[in-house]
């Protein structure tokens, strides 16, 4: 092992708060999930400093030629779907039109559609073919609140601006470019189906139209319900600032709201009022004091106040604060989450409010697969990077300047495949993570917005329906389709992926982080959506309407009772 690698080994121990006398092996034994993710590569002798990606895994074949030719000749089908979903800009768990358009393109190309996958009305499973292998494709289509932005415009200019004299807001927008994600994956699955049809290939393709990814809800509940059982592999990609294959991990996450119930009153005569907003603010403040001594560098928590009151002269009798808690494994996330819960209890006591604590979702950290990344990377090298025009580069540079970043434009090359750094310092979470513990997962990241621009920014929305987003979706479709054909025509590659999956998960038994009996967040679909999809609401096991949360607290004391005035 190189000295550089040894230095990073020491840093990972420090990052996870492990004493110098301990070893990585001891840490991985104590937390088998870390052993399956961060520890596996070290176990098999992978040194990030010396790793070189193998070649010769991706093979030319008639089936692959058919798939790539279909994507070339039908690019407008893929980009057209992407643009439709972008224009809908529907929030998590309410992606009614986006789901309909996505399923319709698959239906027109021979896939059968089953609605209500995992218990979510806007989710579906589209199936083509029969027999082995069974390959899944991930399709997402939800937008984010407040990220509305005109397409191709390099300064912040929302499509939807909601005027309010005291607090204007923006509409929803695809600030994570999920419009491209769903379209690219659907394009890949259709292309593979054409390859199967024209070349006599046997396989079962399943496209999982997933609802609620941005809230980390859809797939964790679906995985718990067994939706992904029986897959031999699962192909996924995500919009990013660069183009590369990946087998790294992500953060495990827990999501919950804490609602504080008090008693309303006039803001000018606050004595005796009980403020739900006070409870939420006290909780937020106490949680901030955890950061220095109670949160490892791999840990994260962040929050949003949902309903903090409508006017300063009304003491709000209800306020909710929504927390995301992230760490390197489910066990570590639970430890940090428990500390956050204690802050909530103390805040309720201090504000004299009633606490309603509701767990919403939890997802594991991602399980990478080295063989899968190597096969995908070889296909990506053979196909080449996304092709961006001079106009694309001009837009990218203008967006970078608008946000104070170096104007270097879009990347024109692939990032070489590298081994994950063992120094995991936390970061984003994905709800495909739970699926990665049920079946081997293929993961690509594709340049969909300019370097230096973070996900969940209006500038991502600005590129997601331009040629930049189109090229990303088409490139993703080509990469995933080519790799899927390789897995069908070269079964030994799939066997190697599955063997690695078995070895990684041997000591880490996946169990959903969602407690039994927890009802997922849910919204009632419009009647016309239910009619078009043949569904009834509510789904089985869902209590509807959801019981109301209403403040019924007594006003507080204002001091000793005074004698009545006569």
UniProtKB/TrEMBL annotation:
InterPro entries: Bact_exopeptidase_dim_dom, Peptidase_M20/M20A_hydrolases, Peptidase_M20_dimer, TAT_signal. Gene3D superfamilies: Zn peptidases. GO terms for cellular component: cytoplasm. One of its GO terms (molecular function) is para-aminobenzoyl-glutamate hydrolase activity. It comes from the Bacteria. GO terms for biological process: folic acid catabolic process. Residues 253-348 form the Peptidase M20 dimerisation domain. PROSITE patterns: TAT. This is Peptidase M20 dimerisation domain-containing protein. It comes from Amycolatopsis carbonis.
């Amino acid at each position: 092992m190189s000295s550089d690698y040894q230095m990073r080994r020491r840093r990972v121990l420090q990052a996870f708060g492990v004493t110098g006398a301990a070893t990585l092996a001891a840490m991985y034994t104590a937390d088998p999930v870390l052993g399956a993710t961060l520890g596996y590569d070290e176990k098999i002798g992978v040194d990030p400093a010396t790793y070189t990606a193998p070649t010769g895994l991706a093979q030319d074949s008639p089936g692959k030629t058919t798939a790539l030719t279909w994507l070339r000749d039908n690019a407008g089908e893929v980009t057209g779907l992407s643009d439709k979903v972008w224009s809908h800009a529907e929030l998590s768990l309410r992606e009614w039109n986006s789901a309909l358009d996505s399923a319709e393109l698959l239906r027109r190309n021979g896939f059968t559609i089953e609605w209500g996958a995992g218990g979510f009305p806007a989710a579906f499973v589209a199936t083509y073919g029969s027999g082995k292998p069974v390959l899944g494709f991930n399709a997402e289509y939800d937008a984010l609140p407040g990220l509305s932005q005109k397409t191709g415009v390099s300064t912040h200019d929302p499509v939807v601006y909601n005027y309010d004299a005291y607090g204007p807001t923006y509409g929803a927008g695809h600030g994570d470019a999920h419009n491209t994600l769903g379209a690219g994956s659907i394009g890949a699955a259709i292309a593979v189906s054409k390859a199967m049809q024209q070349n006599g290939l046997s396989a079962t393709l399943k496209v999982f139209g997933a609802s609620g990814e941005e809230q980390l809800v859809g797939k964790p509940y679906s995985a718990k319900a067994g939706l992904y059982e029986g897959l031999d592999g699962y192909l996924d990609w995500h919009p990013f600032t660069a183009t590369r294959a990946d087998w790294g991990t992500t953060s495990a996450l827990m999501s919950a709201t804490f609602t504080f119930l008090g008693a309303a009153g006039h803001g000018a005569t606050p004595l005796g009022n009980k403020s739900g907003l006070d409870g939420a603010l006290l909780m937020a403040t106490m949680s901030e004091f955890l950061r220095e001594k109670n949160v490892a560098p791999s840990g994260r928590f962040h929050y949003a106040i949902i309903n903090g009151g409508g006017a300063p002269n009304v003491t709000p009798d209800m306020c909710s604060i929504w927390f995301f808690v992230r760490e390197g494994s489910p066990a570590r996330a639970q430890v940090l989450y428990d500390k956050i819960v204690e802050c909530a209890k103390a805040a309720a006591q201090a504000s004299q409010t009633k606490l309603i604590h509701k767990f919403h979702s939890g997802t594991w950290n991602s399980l990478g697969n080295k063989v899968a990344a190597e096969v995908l990377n070889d296909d990506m090298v053979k196909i080449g990077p996304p092709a961006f025009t001079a106009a694309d580069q001009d837009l990218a540079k203008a967006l970078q300047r608008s946000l104070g970043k170096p104007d270097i434009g879009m990347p024109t090359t692939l990032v070489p495949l590298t081994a994950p750094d063992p120094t995991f310092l936390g970061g984003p979470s994905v709800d495909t993570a739970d699926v990665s513990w049920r079946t081997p997962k293929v993961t690509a990241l594709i340049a969909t917005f300019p370097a230096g621009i973070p996900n969940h920014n209006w500038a991502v929305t600005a590129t997601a329906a331009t040629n930049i987003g189109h090229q990303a979706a088409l490139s993703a479709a080509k990469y995933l389709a080519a790799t899927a054909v390789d897995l069908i025509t070269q079964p030994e590659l799939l066997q190697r992926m599955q063997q690695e999956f078995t070895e990684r998960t041997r000591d880490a038994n996946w169990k959903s982080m969602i407690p039994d009996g927890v009802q997922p967040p849910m919204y009632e679909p419009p009647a016309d959506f239910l009619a078009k999809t043949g569904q009834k609401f509510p789904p089985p096991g869902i209590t509807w309407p959801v019981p109301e949360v209403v403040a019924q607290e007594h006003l507080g004391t204002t001091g000793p009772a005074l004698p009545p005035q006569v």
